[in-house]
């Protein structure tokens, strides 16, 4: 009985750890303009979270680490970048588990 309860406790603990996973990637500004805002949502959702870099000048060539609180094994995110020239760059299903750098400029596949 105690072994069963111990195993059940470990299973619950593992579930809690998975539920609070953090995915990180580096956002590199390769757009030749400033990044005004950057938002992330789980792929397909409309629940956007704006990332605050605490730095109003995110110039061409700058890089920032982005950490996103995930839901277990969810690796796919939609990304939205607003640039100072008025353009909005949107990428769907960015795989934060396998890609560790995101560049919103024209070189991004």
Description:
The protein is 17% helix and 39% strand. The chain has one helix at residues 2-19, and strands at 22-28, 35-42, 49-51, 63-69, 76-83, 88-95, 101-102. The relative contact order is 0.26.
Give the SSE map.
Layout: H1 2-19, E1 22-28, E2 35-42, E3 49-51, E4 63-69, E5 76-83, E6 88-95, E7 101-102
Parallel strand pairs: 1-7
Antiparallel strand pairs: 1-4, 2-3, 2-5, 5-6
Which term fits the overall shape? globular
The strand order across the widest sheet is 3-2-5-6
| Total strands | 7
User: Which whole number gives the mean pLDDT?
Assistant: 82
Helix and strand pattern: HEEEEEEE
Helix content: 10-25%
> Distance N terminus to C terminus?
54 Å
Count every helix, treating DSSP H or I runs of 4 or more residues as helices. Answer: 1
Query: Radius of gyration from the CA trace?
Result: 18 Å
Features:
109 residues, alpha+beta, four-stranded antiparallel β-sheet, three-stranded mixed β-sheet
Care to give the gist of this entry?
By secondary structure, this protein is α+β, with helices and mostly antiparallel strands. The chain has one helix at 2-19, and strands at 22-28, 35-42, 49-51, 63-69, 76-83, 88-95, 101-102.
């Amino acid at each position: 009985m105690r072994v069963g309860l111990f195993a059940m406790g470990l299973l619950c603990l593992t579930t809690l750890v998975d539920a609070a996973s953090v995915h990180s990637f580096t956002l590199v500004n390769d757009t030749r303009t400033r990044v005004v805002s950057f938002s992330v949502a789980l792929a397909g959702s409309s629940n956007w979270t704006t990332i605050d870099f605490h730095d109003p000048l995110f110039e061409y060539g700058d890089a920032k680490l982005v950490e996103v609180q995930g839901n277990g094994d969810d690796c796919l995110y939609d990304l939205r970048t607003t640039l100072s020239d008025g353009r909005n760059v949107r990428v769907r299903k960015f795989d934060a588990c396998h890609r560790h750098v995101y560049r919103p400029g024209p070189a991004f596949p």
